[in-house]
Amino acid sequence: MKAIAVVAAVLGFAAAVPACAAGYPDKPIKMLVGFLPGGGTDVTARLLATKLSEKLGQSVIVENRPGAGGMIATAAVARSAPDGYTMLMASAADAAQHLMHKDLSYDLLKDFAPVSLVVTVPFALAAKPTLPVNDVAELVELARAHPGELRYASSGMGSAAHLSNELFNTMAKVRIVHIPYKGVAEGVTAVASNQIDMVFASFPSVMALAAARKVKLLAVSTPYRTAVMPDLPTVAESGLPGYARYGWYGVVMPRNVPSDVVDRMNAAIVSVVGAPDVREAFIKQGLEPKSTTRQEFAGFLKDEVEQATELARASGLEAAR
């Protein structure tokens, strides 16, 4: 009788374990990216996906669904089955979308399970080759002399590039006009071809063009210089004291994914991001590796939403919805 009871207890425990968690993952996983190939989100996703595939023993496939400042991909993940086989490479753009769109179909803080932060992203302030400035101070002077004539690119309304430039506008007391694109790669291309004056973009998006002298880098957006380009001054030290903005990329899944599945993915990401070769690869791309616990990432997202809200209100963006 005792043996029967033990067997029954074991069977009962096994039945209580969600099927998708017991052998997870047992099929390929999709990682959606809301921007075009070539941008920082895509570069981060593809490097992470390659290493996660090796770690998990299943393919992690990056799928680009660009448009609407990343919202198309984010909405698709929010609607997907909560089984752990669809996830999103989220970005700073996701923290501000609720301010730009009244009819947003999802809530970043309520409709997703935070998995882990992956990297933080210093932005390079890149200008078109023919723009007659060589530093931030000269850019501010030019913008003040020609209000509304200069234009900047972004990867969409509410994107990190958008908010970075709006902070620049607010602090410098200038009016540089926003031109949104489907992805930062398109915006950078527009700058390199002299169609748009400037863009705040991740280093992976601009380093090759800067080396080929197709864009000129004026400054880095963080309050500190980056290891990848230590000679590039910060915006704050080169003409706009107190300026500081950066982006980030991290992984989320739909809400209601079993907790142990999220734990499994978190452990895999932390392991991959912490590997010396992966850290070196990210740093070479101008990205700063930074994995977290699930709880730390949840707190980080809450802080990001609050900061984006404050910036949008201060610059009048919220009223433009």
Automatic annotation (TrEMBL):
Q: Which family does it belong to?
A: Belongs to the UPF0065 (bug) family.
Signal peptide extent: 1-21
UniProt keywords, alphabetically: Receptor, Signal
Q: What is this protein called?
A: Tripartite-type tricarboxylate transporter receptor subunit TctC
